[in-house]
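Supplementary Note 3. Input sequence used for the single-chain structure prediction.
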Amino acid sequence: MFAVNESMLTSSAIFGDLPSQHRRIFRGRNRLPTETMVWPEASQLPADPPRWEDMLAGSIRVGIQAAKKTFMPAICVWAMMAAIAAAYYLFPASHHLFGGLITLQEQMGILFPSLGMGLSVGLLAESVRVLMSRARRWSRENTINALFNFGVFGVMGLTHYYRYAFQDDMFGTGASLQVLVPKVMFDQFVWTVLAANPYQAVLYLWKNSGFRWREVVAEMLPFRAFWGTKMLPVLITNWAFWIPMASLVYCFPSELQLPLSIFAVTIWVLLLSVLTSATRHE
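The predicted structure, written as discrete structure tokens, is reproduced below.
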């Protein structure tokens, strides 16, 4: 192979300046070999990565379909959060209840978001799945799911704790558009894209592969195709629910945003657990 490539690197202009006898010698030296060239089989050739526009169109379609399936649970959570917002701003008597929630958060510190999200998404959601199942029996798989989700979302709760404080310092407090819009944009298009979505996608891929990192790395390469076909649909579904929800959460005072976001996550996961269980039984 190298001999053929070497001959192709030679400029044809050199041959024109040589006498005819030398031209014949060079022609003989550059004659292709008569042996049959063996090409690799099609299965041995690497597959071409999908085109970006095809990945984008497919991911948008999958994301929209997933968002449609969860639209009714999303409306329930949005309506519930809107009712809480109305109660806070229209009924001052409800401030005693919110004040107790703020006091509990201050006393627990960082344990409040980590235990709140870990227990709700881990233990509570898995308990609902067991109760909704036909066997109604707690198995080893349920234990693994509960512990795994407790750890994943416990860490997510900690990031909420520090991120909300960071956003207050960066964008200010209050419910004005000058504060609300930058917070939602940073939350959904910076934090979610660069941190939250990759964090959850990689860890759940690790769990689904039997906790083997070698398979995770193989699945993620090439990363462009992995992001376009696996992470982007999840991101689009996430935006469909959390852009409206984040807008509602950031309308509350800063000391209530963290507990109410945990409440929204809890209700959302529980509704999806019920929906998933009902779909399996159909």
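The chain has twelve helices and no strands. Confidence is low (pLDDT under 50) at residues 1-43.
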